[in-house]
Amino acid sequence: MAYKYDSLYISRYSCFSGYIKYSIKVYVKDNKCKVVLTNFRHFVKIGNSSTCQLGVITTSAVYTDFGLSKKFQNKVWVDIKEKVQIYSNATFSSLESFLNKIKESNNDDW
Fold this sequence. Notes:
elongated; alpha+beta
């Protein structure tokens, strides 16, 4: 998942641009499926400072409470969590729509 902090002050946040990697697990049993997205990690683009890389995305309300960059890091932290939630919901919705189409077609011929 590509990541970029959208702000009028983009130059202050450009070092956080990069991507979010994650794991996806799909479980299938008795004509049902379960999809789990986990292990979200923030990585910066090559050439950006490694200090802007936030790493594992957790449920913590703030990324850090110390350092000169804490204000920027915490804003990006909240933004990443919001975008991950939107991305995850869109993924689940898309998958559900796809599975409903398959179910409606009732095509037993693979």
